[in-house]
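During the reporting period the student researcher (J.K.) took over the structure-prediction task from the postdoctoral fellow and processed the backlog of single-chain submissions. One of the processed entries is reproduced below for the supervisory committee.
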Amino acid sequence: MFFKRRILQAEYFDALDRPASEMAEAYAMLAFVNSVCQLARPCQKLLPKMLGEERCRSLTLLDLGAGDGWLGNELQRWAAARGWNWRVTNLDLNARALSLSHNGQSVVGSALALPFRDGAFDVVIASQMAHHLATDDEVCAHFKEAWRVAREAVLLNDLHRNVILYAAIWLLLRLKRAPSTFLSDGLVSVRRGWRVKEWRALAERAEIPGARVWLYYGSRVILEARKKC
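J.K. obtained the following structure tokens:
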């Protein structure tokens, strides 16, 4: 019952007026969580399956809600180790977060109205960004915009709302002695997360043809779709 419906409680992490030092500390903590939870793994595992390894030798990617660019950096480094050239553009509403990025191109903008032409990037990705949006209409707009600017595919994922993930995040952050605001946000993020049927319905509303929505190892909901060549 506790997780039957999403909550819409705001997260302190989304405040744009936090002190710069506090923001940098929060992103350092987030990098730890992302590393432990293998945030980059879905892209590393699924994109070669979707597109084929030969096509993955050279890709342009747009990361929506990129924050400090941690995911893009991980993907570029991972691809380079395989002799692949992945060029990531980071997009986020928070210019101060993007200023912490040390990889790729950074663009300040909204995922609901992307400042790019149709088919501007080979692949559009977003990881754990949609739960920050306020309404289903905004999530649909995010899906539509991601699909519009993708030349070949979209790969979007977010947290799966369930008690086991909630408990795991609580334990991880308590052991790490995360600040109380970060711990609170981590738990709120899970409760703002999604179920497969919810994302599937939103993908249908967004009119993404052939979208596949499924559960990834019990922790994330994945939406993947490829455009016809």
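The committee noted the following: Helices lie at 20-36, 41-51, 70-81, 95-98, 136-149, 163-175, 180-191, 196-205.
J.K. will present the remaining backlog at the next meeting.
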